[in-house]
Amino acid sequence: MPLSVLNFASFIPVSGLPQENDISIKIYADLKSRYGVESEFYKPVPHIPSWMGKLTPELKKRQRIFSSNTYRDVKYGIKVNFPRFNMPFQNKLSIQSHKLAKLDYLLYGRQIEKSMEGNVPDLLHGHALFPDGYIVYRLSKKFDIPYILTVRGGYTDRYITPTGKTVMASASYITTPSYRLYDALSSHYSHKLNLLPHGLDDEWFESLPKKMEQGKLRLVTVSRLLAMKNIQTVIQALPVLRAKGYDVIYHIIGDGDYERGLKQLAADLGVQDAVLFHGFRDASYIRQIYKETDVFVMLSYPETFGRVYFEAAAQGLYVIGVKDTGAHGYLTDEEGNFINIDKNQLVSVLTDLTPEIFALKTKKSKEKMLRFKNDFIIEKYYRIIQNIKSASI
């Protein structure tokens, strides 16, 4: 019999809703194709009464989507269930609050337990501390099933609450893609804590070295267009770079609520001709833009991991990020630059970048990226699953 894993993931993509990271579902799609691991997902969603769906078109849309009992992820075909686990608009609060997660389970946990009766998996996997981790902790106790816990984001008070400590202590394994979280948690959970980055598929690895031309800067950012991504700081650096004589073009790939403000900022600074907005694009389009650019810059804070940094590094781009978040730790100033969110620091880094420094650092970063090949990462996940299964027999 193949191993079966039931996943709880608050943040996974759903067709018709704002774009979210697909890494959790992709991991299990790869585990299925390589090792035959069976899986399905539960995405805790708001309980939206019928009358509330009449209030706004957005609520009506969510009510329709979440009423489906047969949803499958459009990219990987994995089944996704939508347990009503909280009140409308509460989901993001539940991510942060152990108290809300406990209340939600008291109100709605029985429906999840009932859905599992007669269909108990080998293993549970919670993809965030709250509410996902708390759900799998409760289900683990009821059905006597071990669980993996994946934690993301910054180190906050939720990790030292009594409930947070219990959820982590009861997990068979804890994984995190975050270098910062790994450092913060390792003193307490080193025996079962695994630093597992997001894997890169083979098509991201570019064999030919890139060459940078002195005096030209071809910059690119790939992200949601949100204030926390600090794309505005990069745009603010452009007129300074131009004044210093640089021929600079900045490509922005992604969409989001901040797009209008960023376009207005570029116009106000007189650099709208240097800023190219591409909108949301697929991987093949992104790789084509990478062939036309030299420097990947994303001053996002906070950032759990930031797979785009590593995809860009594997393509041979020079990477600039923020200190003590995201890619920093996996990559260092030996392979790129990690700075404060500061226009002047960014200008300094870019004006100090010579073709020789570019060639040296991008060679080192591409070599380091070989450790991030997806096959290696998926094999590590499979070993964890096998170890848990063996220990539970």
TrEMBL record:
CDD domains the UniProt entry points to: GT4_PimA-like
The UniProt record lists the keyword Transcription regulation: no
InterPro entries cross-referenced by the UniProt entry: Glyco_trans_1 (IPR001296), Glyco_trans_4-like_N (IPR028098), Glycosyltransferase_grp1 (IPR050194)
Domain Glycosyl transferase family: 213-339
Domain named Glycosyltransferase subfamily 4-like N-terminal: residues: 105-203
EC number of this enzyme: 2.4.-.-
One Pfam family here: Glyco_transf_4
GO molecular function: glycosyltransferase activity
Domain of life: Bacteria
Group of enzyme by EC: transferase
Keyword annotations from UniProtKB, A to Z: Glycosyltransferase, Transferase
UniProt signal peptide: none
Segments forming a coiled coil: none
SUPFAM superfamilies in the cross-refs: UDP-Glycosyltransferase/glycogen phosphorylase
Protein name: Glycosyltransferase family 4 protein
Species this chain originates from: Negadavirga shengliensis
